[in-house]
Design goal:
Layout (H helix, E strand, L loop, with lengths): L3 E2 H11 L4 E5 L5 H4 L8 E3 L4 H15 L3 E5 L3 H16 L3 E7 L2 H4 L12 H5 L5 E4 L6 H13 L6 E6 H5 L1 E2 L22 H13 L3 E5 L1 H5 L3 H11 L2 E4 L20 H10 L2 E5 L22 E6 L13 E4 L2 H15 L8 H19 L9 H11 L5 E5 L2 H9 L8 E2 L10 H11 L5 E6 H4 L5 H7 L5 E6 L4 H10 L15 H7 L3 E5 L5 H11 L3 E6 L2 H4 L5 H8 L5
Parallel strand pairs: 2-3, 2-4, 4-5, 5-7, 6-7, 9-10, 9-11, 11-12, 12-13, 14-15, 14-16, 16-17, 17-19, 18-19
Antiparallel strand pairs: 1-8
Helix pairs in contact: 1-7, 3-4, 3-17, 9-13, 11-13, 12-14, 15-16
């Protein structure tokens, strides 16, 4: 049999995993791989920066619920990719990161003076679930299987493989390696967990007077939003989500309380007698599941469900811990609850929670009013949200701009929200939007970004144009680093230090120069017609909206956000 290169063997393995699209900036070490790309029916999306490739891969996996592959070249390429992979690590996204590496006879041990050689395993180890180097052509299929298994079991996360260039170019007999389908080596979903724990949880929930359900990203990864809602409807329960899991409950649901609707959310959480937390670690942005955001552990019962045993009871003791798949556990719990009794109406506490929610909404309405005819960022976001359908994919990027978006842009469908909620990584927005559009070409995708954040990866507009990713980018332009202005103002450091950007910057003209649609908006009445023209262009589009810098200093939720992150007692 004709021998096969390592590059082709890699393609063969990825094909068996169901990969059709890869994201990456490659170098000559990947030539054996590139030579066979068309033969295996795969498409390489080649952005302008390796970090953007990783962000695009992460967007693909979050929108489609399946692992995605990011690839980079030797040394500098792999170093560039790492910021995208560290973001995926923080967000818990199963990205398969692969890079080439210098020849084996150079790298281990380092001979000194070798070109573009760096300890990539040392770099990637701390920011991935698992990492390894391929040292033998015959072990490549085994290590690809291990990579996928590690990325998808327990709490999802990125993994990393380095493949030396001599392994990539080297050849071997394909009859001497085994390439298995996922069904032959992956166990599948972990199921509903311990039946005894399910029964105890059902009894607690059935006896609860004020139950509350809290969803983390595990609900999204498991596709368990229907089961989550069915449980809440049966119990008449209040619902909250982590910032990352927004969308698993439509945010116009009458029993859902938004993460920034602080008073109502904390009242519902702290007054709940039984909490069912599914698919999350109850971390810092969840208030560590401690009072006053939640009830006292001695009084409030907590049922915690997760695929990762290490996540259960991580930051708060639990009364029932269930290791299992969110969808299967949700279904089993619902069956057990139906055996315990009929569906229940909502409890009397909702009158108070909704009154608090109405006060919050009134504050939002007041905060969205323009001053001196200037464009208010909140009003801008409202118009953008109203323009797009319920299932459009929203991408957020920036500091204060993301807070305006979080308050005024409700997420109304599952897998329709992309933001680095756990890492807050500026610049991910544009590659996220492109990756999302390639993952779901029939769904509208729009990005709301600050002018600071858009500068990190604005070159990827050319990538969007090249691959026909007709996204809409709205740049909220306050001519500076808005959140840093707010931070320095609140800290009273005696003025603003290096917060200004060039006031005449024309991001819309940059878009035009890359072959995209670009338009500048200076009055709020111009925004919706601009959105319509952008859609009619059928091109990637960027609309630069000149917002009032003074309005932008204090978005609703900024005090909530800072109180969540900067608690002195932590």
């Amino acid at each position: 049999m004709t021998e096969m290169t390592g590059g082709e063997l890699l393609l063969k393995c990825l094909k068996e995993e169901g990969v059709s699209v890869l994201f990456g900036v490659l170098d000559g070490s990947f030539n054996p791989f590139l030579a066979k790309l068309d033969e295996y029916g795969m498409r390489l999306v080649n952005p302008r920066h390796e970090a953007a490739a990783a962000h695009m891969a992460e967007a693909w996996t979050r929108i489609r619920g399946e692992p995605a592959v990011a690839i980079s070249g030797i040394g500098p390429g792999a170093a560039n990719m790492i910021s995208g992979i560290i973001t995926a690590h923080a967000e818990g996204s199963p990205v398969i990161a692969i890079s080439s590496q210098r020849r084996r006879n150079i790298i281990y041990p380092d001979r000194g003076g070798s070109f573009q050689n760096v300890d990539l395993l040392g770099l990637y180890g701390p920011v991935t679930k698992w990492s390894a180097g391929v040292r033998d052509w015959r072990r490549l299929p085994e290590l690809i299987r291990r990579a996928y298994r590690e990325a998808t079991t327990g709490r999802p996360g990125p993994v990393y493989l380095e493949i030396p260039e001599d392994v990539m170019r080297g050849t071997g007999d394909p009859a001497k390696v085994d390439i298995w389908s996922p069904a032959q080596y992956r166990a599948g979903r972990p199921g509903a967990g311990d039946p005894g724990a399910i029964a105890r949880a059902a009894r607690l929930l059935a006896q609860a007077e004020r139950p509350l359900l809290h969803a983390g990203m595990g609900v999204a990864w498991a596709g368990a939003w229907d089961e989550f809602l069915a449980l809440a409807d049966h119990l008449g329960a209040a619902m909250t989500t982590s910032l990352a899991a927004r969308g698993v409950v439509p945010e116009d649901h009458p029993r859902y309380f938004h993460p920034l609707n602080r008073e109502a959310m904390e009242a519902a959480r702290s007054e709940a007698d039984v909490v069912l937390a599914i698919g999350g670690r109850l971390g810092e942005l969840d208030g560590w599941a401690r009072p006053p955001s939640w009830g006292e552990p001695a009084v409030q019962k907590v049922i915690h469900v997760d695929t990762d045993p290490a996540s259960i009871g991580l930051n708060r003791p639990v009364d029932v811990g269930i290791v299992g798949d969110a969808r299967d556990v949700g279904s089993a719990l619902l069956t057990a609850l139906k055996e315990c009794g009929e569906p229940r109406d909502e409890h009397e506490g909702f009158e108070k929670y909704r009154a608090l929610g109405q006060e919050w909404r009134a504050e939002l309405d007041a905060a969205a009013q323009p001053v001196d005819g200037q464009v208010n960022p909140g009003h801008m976001v409202q118009i953008v949200r109203d323009f797009f359908p319920r299932d459009a994919i929203t991408v957020m990027d920036g500091g204060n701009t993301s807070l305006w978006s979080a308050s005024y842009n409700p997420i109304l469908a599952p897998r329709s929200y992309l933001y680095t909620a756990k890492f807050g990584h500026l610049g991910a927005g544009l590659p996220y939007a492109i990756g999302a559009k390639l993952a779901a070409p029939d769904r509208p995708v729009y990005l709301i970004s600050g002018d600071g954040a858009i500068g990190f990866n604005i070159q990827e507009l050319e990538t969007a144009r090249r691959y026909g990713a007709a996204i809409t980018v709205i740049v909220s332009c306050d001519r500076g680093w808005g959140m840093e202005r707010s931070s320095q103002m609140f800290a009273q450091i005696g003025g603003m230090v290096e917060c200004e950007l060039y006031p005449e910057a024309r991001y819309d003209l940059v878009a035009q120069a890359f072959g995209c649609y670009g338009e500048k908006v200076e009055e709020i009445e111009q925004l919706r017609p601009a959105l319509e023209r952008a859609a009619e262009s059928e091109k990637p589009a960027l609309i630069q909206v000149m917002v009032d810098p003074m309005n932008n200093l204090a978005p609703p939720g900024i005090l909530v956000f800072t109180s969540m992150v900067y608690r002195a007692e932590d």
